[in-house]
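Practice problem: predict the structure.
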Amino acid sequence: MRMKSTLLLAVVCCILLPTSIGAGEGGVDVNPSEDDPFTVVTRDSPSIDNKEWSLTIEMSPEAYNNGTTFEIITQICTNDGICDPPVTMDAEVEERLHSISLTPPNDHTYVNWRVKATDSDGNKTSYPHGDWFKTWSSCYYNDGNWGGTDSLGDGCSSDSENTPGFGSLVTLIAVLAAAGITVNRRYHQR
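Answer:
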């Protein structure tokens, strides 16, 4: 019986863990430290639903000169507590500058990102160690509260271009109207 209770507790912890790991303080971006081998040149903050989010980092001269390479990995988490699998981005590299962009979906909480550095000997180091840098969205749900510049306190402000199906409804009406006109013309031409 004790084994079943322990197993049940472990399963519950595993289910709840992903929604709380690395969340930090809601709305406060997590940025690289001075000790990391790169700096952020530009980064869109906050990230906005369905709008391109961009990041450019600059490799330190020491890392660049010793042949270090970077991979930038991203992960998007949504307000329902689900995080997409991490994605290694195709960065545009121009000497020491590495740039990426992505478009977060509707209802995202934040964009996680990290850098995997590989030195000339093949040694790999992730920055930050065991966690993510984070850019919060303009409307997020964290610890039971809504926040961000587009938050209404009980959800996110709605924008007609973000309303699912609205564009489809307008298109459907236009197609049906055109079909009706065509049928009407054919009927009267007989």
